[in-house]
Amino acid sequence: MSPTPRPLVIKTTSGTERPEATNQAFTVAAAAVAAGADVSLWLTGESAWFALPGRAADLVLEHATPLGELLEVVLEGGRVTVCTQCAARRGIGPEHVLPGVRIAGAAVFVEESLAERAQALVY
């Protein structure tokens, strides 16, 4: 029996201004979900916009899986969270985000990142 993959917490701080970094975070999160990992993807800074319906389509990157498809994978098998302060600065409330996306603060990020065996990545 293979060991259970450890929890993976991924935080992305970029939006359309850094498409490769942003897409990489979503790609790694989706790949980890596909591998059976417990994945938590945090959208901070300009990435917070991708929690809104249709906004993932704003990021177009040649030779990359569309961001919307990657986000769907993560939403189906993991967790997606928008930073509380980042959401507030952009006027994003719970009523604005995609179904399954939560808004939470630093304490939750720290709790997930410090969980036993957890690995945190920041893009």
Automatic annotation (TrEMBL):
The organism's place on the tree of life at top rank: Bacteria
InterPro entries from the UniProt entry: DsrEFH-like, Sulphur_relay_DsrE/F-like
Protein name, entry field: Uncharacterized protein
Natural source organism: Cellulomonas xylanilytica
